[in-house]
Amino acid sequence: LLASTPLHINSIATTARVFSRGENPQDSDLTSHSEHGISVPLPLGTALIIPPQVGDARPGTKKQWIICLFTSRGFGTRVDPPELILSSTNAALQDLKEKLIDLRLDGTESSPKALYSCRFNAGLFAVPWHQTKALMDEVGLRVTVMSPSESLDSR
Fold first, then answer.
1. What is the pTM of this model?
2. What DSSP assignment string belongs to 73-107?
């Protein structure tokens, strides 16, 4: 159904930004700060699709798409409760599905051929994986989930 290259889902989209500034993610409220010093909350319950960039891949290699799912406003002691994370995840997955359909219908740009994901929400957010997986199934997204070891299946 999906068109051209693998896609990786990252539920904590701003982690790289936080680390690149030398901050500890637990000390950050993960809001966007403009150059004018205005703090804007992240769009909780939405998905951001970032297409492959021209300089990111060598000719003849697969191009990677990145998806960011905004499922919690914070980390550590500021993480949202599991019920809110699951509600935000459901909304973000619905948003993702709609955006993927729009990409295919638009046709002006290629779209991802396959979806790959880690067990998002299960790590830092401590949401049991089977609950997030159930939402993915309910929304109807076919995703290959990469998992570390079978010992973590209970998460």
1. 0.69
2. S-SGGGPPPHHHHHHHHHHHHHHHHHHHHHHHHH-
